Amino acid sequence: MLNKNVSLKKKLKDGKVTIGSWITLGHPGIAEIMALAGFDWVVVDMEHSVMSIDTAGDLIRIIDLCGTAPMVRLTSNHPDQIKRVMDAGAHGIVVPMVNSADDAMRAVAAVRYAPEGSRGVGLARAQGYGVDFKEYFEWQKHSSVVIVQIEHRDALDNLDAILTVPGVDGFIIGPYDLSCSMGIPGQFEHPDLIAALDKILAAGKRLGVPSGLHIVEPDAPRLAQSIQQGYCFIAYSVDIRLLDVGVRQGIQCFKEQIK
Asked: Which whole-number Å values give the CA distances from 32 to 42, 101, 109, 173, 217, in the listed order?
């Protein structure tokens, strides 16, 4: 049964800064550790992982029961997958490659039931297995979250149209894909990419839409800087980078001590 005591939507509406992270390893222990770490939300990443819908459903349940908002980054903007992860109890979705208002509208419609949307009705974990469908029906209208990813140069010309689609609760920038689409892959200090990031952030501020950024490396000073810049939906790294960096730093410290 979905945990309705956790409201990411309200935090976003109130303009609060929220910090989350990304899970690509489909292990329940990883999900529990991340969900208990103090994040406001944790994204189960189905786009860049090999996890199945069954595994994603288990991770959603664990994160939710830990009192953290479970989100799912989809493999694509497809209504069937959106329906299934929402039925599993996801509090919302992160939609990749949203480049137009039509892309955003499709995602919102797939999250909502008629008459606001097109999502089919089923009785699964989110609906209390049939016990509290009416409560869930109200919840999905007022508390489900849709975050669009701005991660391609094509989206830069459509920012206002995308971000003003009713039901879009915020956006998050995908810096790697954006840089690749601009022909400057991974060059995060390139003036053109910095200008693009500034343009996207300015649009979010002007339109009053929560602005998000994925800080892929576990860099605490960069996290603080992003808050100062005005980002308020911030993904702090990803499980594999947190693990890798932590291990390498520990080994490096050990090697320096035995030289």
From this structure: 10, 35, 31, 26, 21
Neighbours of 93 (CB within 10 A): 26
C-alpha dihedral sign at 78, 235, 206, 203: negative
CATH number at residue 54: 3.20.20.60
Question: pLDDT digit string (tens) for 65-120?
Answer: 999 999 999 999 999 999 999 999 999 999 999 999 999 999 999 999 999 999 99
Residue 1 maps to a domain = no
Alpha-carbon gap, residue 11 to 145, rounded angstroms: 11
Q: pLDDT tens digits, residue range 11-66?
A: 999 999 999 999 999 999 999 999 999 999 999 999 999 999 999 999 999 999 99
List CB contacts of 46: < 8 A, sequence separation 6 or more: 53, 56, 72, 73, 74, 75, 81, 85
Range of the domain at 69: 8-257
Residues annotated as part of the active site:
48
Q: Considering its fold, how many domains does the chain have in total?
A: 1
Instruction: With respect to residue 188, please indicate whether it lies within any of the assigned structural domains.
Output: yes
Which among 206, 213, 250, 247 has a CA at the least distance from the CA of 228? 213
Q: Kindly report whether the global pTM for this prediction surpasses the value 0.85.
A: yes
Name the amino acid, one letter, at 243.
L
